[in-house]
């Protein structure tokens, strides 16, 4: 009898909570991995950005198309020399515990992320700020030297090292989010625990089960609270994309942030319009080690690059139609020329490209009698493997023998950093909307230049662009730099990334955009 | 009995430290470090991170620092889930793993023993073939294939059960993952039980029992099953250990919290503290399970008890 009563009570409680929940709109998002942290200064992945970016808001924030719009700042002025930005905070903005968000919170946050003790892996994104780099690398110990100061409670002044045309956009990034000074000072590293966390964005985390999900709830103190259509968001950890698709089909997920390539056809036929594939500011490429033979010879690099049949990779090997890349900068980036610089030979027929490539290889002294032996490395992954196999078959035609070598991601990049490569797979997703973000990968003094390609002309053009304020002149300098790199086949661009989401027809306010950023704030869900 | 148990547990402490030491150094020999990612970090940022986790200190100093903190019960930080310590992550995941693994364990014993008895009693007859074939299917189809098939059939097509997730932890959410997790063990236990029962049934004392005119049912229930269970019992220790630590595939495909994932993922992401934490956990689990198996042996087998 007791047991019966208990279960009757449980059923009643369950029905009751069901009835209450019926009014709450919950968005179920497939979010791949577990976040490393909820602290905006300690994260670096897009799965973390989805959560953290819903909880915190910078001076600027992203609109529904991921364009920078006023966030915690209502307005700003930029000095004529482009070095000083003065921001005016919105009136009456508050943290989720009711404390006011002040200019001081921003100063505190910028100092904290640059403090070497915080060990933020993404701090370098805000290096345009005056003294940020010397402070972050420990050369300058005095944190107050950082070019961020509170003029008064609601006015913040940021000084830059040099004019940075993408700086407003960079302020939407999580490295520029404020943190609640009063809580961080009180609780230390534990400020981010669920029981302590205080946010200034539209949502606030209320539950985190590692390996399962993070759940957020809308923040009543947020200035735009009245317009939030989604009450709760559950971000699910699920690294298996086909399992995620099944859960989507069963209605357990509203949004998928990845889907298996081989299901794309099926999705288009059975759920038309729900798979959203859109240009994404990123490049998939092969680096070629220019520091030692045989790839120090630009003719060989060009021959190999030319012989890649890029037009089949996206549509046939990957199945999602990634566009062929002949330039280093993906199309559509801000502060740049209309069309990035494509390799001169980009428009040739594939057979003509192969002929030319064969000539180049012969000129360089290789051929059927003296075949090139090259190792191609990639990090273990089904798609990387398929592409590597296809490309080595394309190179085989030139008389180039490729040995494939795969290693898990950590080992792959550790070796690349040490320069242990001949040809290797790499990729880059833009952090901010400016061509410099990609072009700097080929600077001779940067660690990400795995191919050790070195051009003084290229470096000089990038340096000149850095101090050029006129956007048009700057774009031209960058375009020249891109031309230098592409003409010398500094590396082989292969395809431009696409963002791949699946969005339920119930969801509106999810617009495809080049940064694949979709804040819940703009979404709504119909039953 | 208690003295025996305590002695057994204490004797494993040196083994634990030797294993930890070996793991600590082997781990550092592996190429690649925790901060090697697709985008390489600027030198100074990398230096900040390494200083933060004391990775810039000499290896031997790091070792003593680590052992020192383990002795104090602190398993250190996790590099991949910074908001929690290794001990917190294991403690948070353990209840889920226990429920999942425990249910699969019970299911495996029930179905494994039952099907083994059927197969053993009807040796080489159709009941044996049907039962054996059924349980063997569960062994042959690997879990990374079985899980998606069950999800597709029962979750997506029939809509009887949720496809994945922990949900409210109710039976509906647990059914598929528990079945997948238990299948291989059902098959193994079933085979062990079958073989051992066949052997027992031909033993002299069974013949004696029959010759006394005891009914077949009573012979099986009273005289055959208990001794036939011994080989199964010695398999249960490793099986339980596997269920608690080897649930990576099931956790990954069903998106369940639990600690199975840490055993593989921590090594792949060079999350040094987490790898060592899982090593400690695994060893403790194995030691306890072996002890339990020994104690159960003593209960079931008079020969062990006498000694």
In short:
The complex is a heterodimer of chains A (527) and B (307). Chain A is 31% helix and 20% strand. With 527 residues, chain A is of the alpha+beta class.
Question: Helix and strand layout, with pairings?
Answer:
The complex is a heterodimer of chains A (527) and B (307).
Chain A: H1 2-21, E1 26-30, H2 46-55, E2 60-62, E3 68-70, E4 73-78, E5 84-89, H3 103-114, H4 132-136, E6 148-152, E7 155-159, H5 167-170, H6 181-187, E8 203-209, E9 213-218, E10 232-236, H7 241-249, E11 255-256, H8 264-270, E12 275-288, H9 298-306, H10 310-318, H11 350-363, E13 372-379, H12 382-396, E14 400-407, H13 409-417, E15 423-429, H14 436-439, H15 456-466, H16 471-487, E16 491-503, E17 507-508, E18 524-525
Parallel strand pairs in A: 1-10, 13-14, 13-15
Antiparallel strand pairs in A: 2-3, 4-5, 5-7, 6-7, 8-9, 9-10, 11-16, 12-15, 12-16, 17-18
Chain B: H1 2-29, H2 43-52, H3 59-71, H4 86-121, H5 126-140, H6 143-157, H7 171-201, H8 204-211, H9 216-245, H10 248-254, H11 260-268, H12 272-300, H13 302-306
Explained architecture:
The complex is a heterodimer of chains A (527) and B (307). Chain A has 527 residues and is an alpha+beta fold. In chain A, helix 15 (456-466) packs antiparallel against helix 16. The two termini of chain A are 39 Å apart. Mean pLDDT of chain A is 91; it is low at 1-21. Chain A has helices spanning 2-21, 46-55, 103-114, 132-136, 167-170, 181-187, 241-249, 264-270, 298-306, 310-318, 350-363, 382-396, 409-417, 436-439, 456-466, 471-487, and strands at 26-30, 60-62, 68-70, 73-78, 84-89, 148-152, 155-159, 203-209, 213-218, 232-236, 255-256, 275-288, 372-379, 400-407, 423-429, 491-503, 507-508, 524-525. In chain A, the strands form 5 sheets. Chain A has a 6-stranded mixed beta sheet, sandwiched between helices. Chain A has 2 domains: 8-236 and 504-525, D-Maltodextrin-Binding Protein, domain 2 (3-Layer(aba) Sandwich); 281-498, Roll (Dipeptide-binding Protein, domain 3), CATH 3.10.105. In chain A, a hairpin with a 5-residue loop joins strand 4 and strand 5. Chain B has 307 residues and is mainly α. Chain B has a domain at 97-201 and 230-270 and 277-300: MetI-like (MetI-like fold). Chain B has 13 helices and no strands. Chain B has helices at residues 2-29, 43-52, 59-71, 86-121, 126-140, 143-157, 171-201, 204-211, 216-245, 248-254, 260-268, 272-300, 302-306. Chain B is globular, with a radius of gyration of 24 Å. The two termini of chain B are 12 Å apart. Classes of the chains: A alpha+beta (527), B mainly alpha (307). Chains A and B meet through helix 7, helix 13 and strand 15 of A and helix 2, helix 4, helix 6 and helix 10 of B.
């Amino acid at each position: 009898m007791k047991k019966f009563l208990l279960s009757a009570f449980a059923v009643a409680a369950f029905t009751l909570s069901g009835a209450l929940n019926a009014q709450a709109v919950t968005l179920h998002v497939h979010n791949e991995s577990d976040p490393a942290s909820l602290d905006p200064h300690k994260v670096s992945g897009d799965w973390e950005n989805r959560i953290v970016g819903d909880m915190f808001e910078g001076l600027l924030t992203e609109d529904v198309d991921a364009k920078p719009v006023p966030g915690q700042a209502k307005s700003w002025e930029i000095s004529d020399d482009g070095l000083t930005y003065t921001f005016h905070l919105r009136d009456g903005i508050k943290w989720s515990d009711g404390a006011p968000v002040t200019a001081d919170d921003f100063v505190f946050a910028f100092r904290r992320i640059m403090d070497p003790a915080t060990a933020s892996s993404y701090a370098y994104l805000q290096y345009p700020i005056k003294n940020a780099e010397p402070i972050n690398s420990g050369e300058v110990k005095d944190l107050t030297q950082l070019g961020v100061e509170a003029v008064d409670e609601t006015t913040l002044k940021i000084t830059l090292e040099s004019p940075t045309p993408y700086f407003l956009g960079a302020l939407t990034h999580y490295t520029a989010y404020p943190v609640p000074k009063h809580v961080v000072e009180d609780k230390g590293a534990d400020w981010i625990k669920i029981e302590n966390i205080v946010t200034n964005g539209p949502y606030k985390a209320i539950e985190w089960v590692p390996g399962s999900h993070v759940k957020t709830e809308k923040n009543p103190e947020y200035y735009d609270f009245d317009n939030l259509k989604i009450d709760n968001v559950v971000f699910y950890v699920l690294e298996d994309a086909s399992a995620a698709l099944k859960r989507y089909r069963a209605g357990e997920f509203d949004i998928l942030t990845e889907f298996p390539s081989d299901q794309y056809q099926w999705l288009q036929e059975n759920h038309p319009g729900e798979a959203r594939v859109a240009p994404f500011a990123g490049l998939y490429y092969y680096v070629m080690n220019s520091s030692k033979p045989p790839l120090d010879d630009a003719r060989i690099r060009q021959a190999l690059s030319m012989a890649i049949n890029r037009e089949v990779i996206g549509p046939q090997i990957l199945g999602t139609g990634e566009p062929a890349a002949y330039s280093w900068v993906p199309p559509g980036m801000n502060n740049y020329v209309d069309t990035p610089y494509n390799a001169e030979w980009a428009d040739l027929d594939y057979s003509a490209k192969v002929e030319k490539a064969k000539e180049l290889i012969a000129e360089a002294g290789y051929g059927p009698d003296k075949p090139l032996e090259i190792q191609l490395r990639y990090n273990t992954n089904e798609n990387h493997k398929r592409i590597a196999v296809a490309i080595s078959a394309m190179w085989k035609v030139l008389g180039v023998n490729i040995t494939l070598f795969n290693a898990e991601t950590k080992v792959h990049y550790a070796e690349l950093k040490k320069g242990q490569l001949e040809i290797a797979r790499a990729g880059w997703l833009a952090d901010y909307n400016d061509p410099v973000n990609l072009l700097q990968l080929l600077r001779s003094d940067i660690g990400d230049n795995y191919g050790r390609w070195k051009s003084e002309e290229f470096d000089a053009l990038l340096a000149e662009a850095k101090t050029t304020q006129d956007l048009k002149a700057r774009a031209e300098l960058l375009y020249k730099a891109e031309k230098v790199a592409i003409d010398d086949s500094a590396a082989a661009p292969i395809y431009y990334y696409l963002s791949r989401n699946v969005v339920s027809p119930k969801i509106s306010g999810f617009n495809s955009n080049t940064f694949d950023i979709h804040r819940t704030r703009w979404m709504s869900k119909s039953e | 009995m208690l003295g025996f148990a305590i002695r057994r547990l204490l004797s494993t402490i040196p083994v634990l430290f030797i294993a930890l030491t070996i793991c600590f150094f082997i781990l550092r020999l592996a190429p690649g470090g925790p901060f090697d990612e697709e985008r390489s970090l600027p030198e100074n940022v990398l230096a900040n991170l390494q200083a933060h986790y004391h990775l810039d200190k000499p290896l031997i100093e790091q070792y003593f620092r680590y052992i020192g903190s383990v002795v104090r019960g602190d398993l250190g930080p996790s590099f991949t889930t910074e908001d929690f310590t290794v001990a917190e992550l294991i403690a948070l995941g353990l209840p889920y793993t226990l429920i999942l693994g425990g249910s699969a364990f019970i299911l495996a014993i029930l179905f494994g023993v039952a099907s083994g008895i059927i197969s053993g009693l009807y040796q080489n007859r159709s009941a044996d073939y049907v039962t054996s074939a059924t349980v063997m299917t569960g062994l042959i189809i690997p879990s990374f294939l079985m899980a998606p098939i069950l999800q597709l059939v029962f979750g997506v097509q029939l809509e009887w059960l949720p496809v994945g997730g922990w949900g409210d932890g109710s039976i509906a959410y647990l059914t598929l993952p528990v079945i997948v997790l238990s299948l291989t063990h059902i098959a193994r236990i079933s085979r062990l039980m079958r073989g051992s029962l066949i052997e027992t049934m031909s033993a002299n004392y069974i013949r004696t029992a029959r010759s006394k005119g005891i009914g077949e049912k009573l012979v099986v229930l009273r005289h055959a099953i208990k001794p036939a269970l011994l080989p199964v019992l010695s398999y249960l220790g490793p099986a339980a250990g596997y269920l608690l630590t080897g649930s990576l595939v099931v956790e990954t495909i069903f998106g369940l919290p639990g600690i199975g994932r840490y055993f593989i993922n921590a090594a792949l992401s060079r999350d040094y503290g987490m790898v060592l934490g899982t090593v400690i956990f695994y060893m403790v689990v194995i030691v306890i399970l072996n002890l339990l198996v020994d104690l159960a042996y003593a209960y079931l087998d008079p020969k062990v008890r006498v000694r």
